[in-house]
Amino acid sequence: MKALIRTGTSPNNVICAPGNEYIGREVEIKPEVVATDSLSVVSCALVEKIDLAIIGPEAPLVAGVADSLREQGIAVFGPSKQAAMLEGSKQFAKEIMAAADVPTGMARECSTMDQVASALDQFGAPYVVKADGLAAGKGVIVTADREAALEHAEKFIADGVLVEEFLDGQEVSLFFLADGKTVMPLSPAQDYKRAYDNDEGPNTGGMGAYSPLPWLPEGFVEEVTERVAQPTVDELARRGTPFVGLLYCGLIMTSRGVKVIEFNARFGDPETQVVLRRLQTNLADLLMRSATGRLDVGATAEFSNKCTVTVVLASEGYPVTNAPVREVTGIDSAEAMDDVEVCKASPTGRVLSVVGCGDSFQEARTLAYEGMARISLEGGFYRHDIGLKVS
């Protein structure tokens, strides 16, 4: 999904392309636009006299839509096709980190199943296998079952996979705005990747998140800025492919220090919902400054002291199988609650998330789960332990 913004920040000045029925209740949508088709997107942007294009998903970024918009003189929040390979190719990301001396785990690139088997034996269990390219949140497996690791690798081996060492510790998500030369951190969050309670089940695109993280050590954000985000943006600039947009750093706090698990090149669910819900600085202003190389001018991102928790509702079988599209009821009832927001996503898979915002994590959790209790989806499920450890 893509947001195309005219001057001004009211809903009347935002177009979402292609959009969906829910976001269409708040802003103008262009369902005829194909987000990965540069001609379709550029044509819409020119006709609507767009001042700023915000590219949301990874597929249009890797397809080079940002490049086509910039060629028409339109400001874009989103990296070029080449810079977006930071997410589009796990191997490319490893190369950038090596060149920039960014701490990360050991990995082996594999193009045959024999290489995969050898790498699994080298690193040992738990086994970590990642698709090299985009896989809609389904490209990673972490398992103690060697056969399951091999089966996962076989699904993606035609396009290459990475086998990595297992890194143990607390995971942290930290977003950075980047304008090609400067980075600006947002607020940390933690998401829950496993499908079921107690971190059981397969990996997903994320089943919930909370922010802030009161247990982080002092100076954590500054350390990640100096050791991870800024060196990465500097290395891409050195290569002539400046990174402009959102740099997502997926991190893990190991006994050997903070290390990078992965990079994304855009806002990611569900952490975005809990982070931006606390943002007090004007978001449109921050994104425009990022798109136009002016992050070092003006206010930095400021956040409230509120606590936010989001819980994801997924359709039956996610992430292994796709359920048929089924009716979702109760959304309006949940949205009628104070300090509750429902973020609609997809008709299947991860269908929506319910965000609660309160003065404590206990209050935020209560609001999120009370909101979720008002929503019904046949076969749908959600985790019951999001934010529990900090409430």
Going by helix content, strand content and strand pairing, the class is: alpha+beta
- Radius of gyration, in Å, reads 20 Å
Q: Give the overall form.
A: globular
Number of helical runs? 12
Number of structurally distinct domains: 3
The CATH class of the largest domain is Alpha Beta
Strand order of the largest sheet: 3-2-1-4-5
- Number-wise, the strands total 22
Largest sheet: 5 strands, mixed
**CATH homologous superfamily of the largest domain?**
ATP-grasp fold, B domain
Measured between the Cα atoms of the first and last residue, the distance is 33 Å
Q: Determine the strand fraction and express it as a percent band.
A: 25-35%
Overall residue-averaged pLDDT value: 94
Unreliable residue runs: none
Core attributes:
single chain, 391 residues, alpha+beta, Rossmann fold, Dna Ligase, domain 1, D-amino Acid Aminotransferase, Chain A, domain 1, 3 domains, five-stranded mixed β-sheet, 12 helices, 28% helix
In words, what does this structure look like?
This protein has three domains: 2-77, 3-Layer(aba) Sandwich (Rossmann fold), CATH 3.40.50; 106-164, Dna Ligase, domain 1 (2-Layer Sandwich), CATH 3.30.1490; 170-390, 2-Layer Sandwich (D-amino Acid Aminotransferase, Chain A, domain 1). The model has no long low-confidence stretch (mean pLDDT 94). 28% of the residues lie in helices and 27% in strands. It is globular, with a radius of gyration of 20 Å. Helix 1 packs parallel to helix 3 (65-71) and helix 6 (113-123) runs antiparallel to helix 7 (146-156). The protein is of the alpha+beta class.
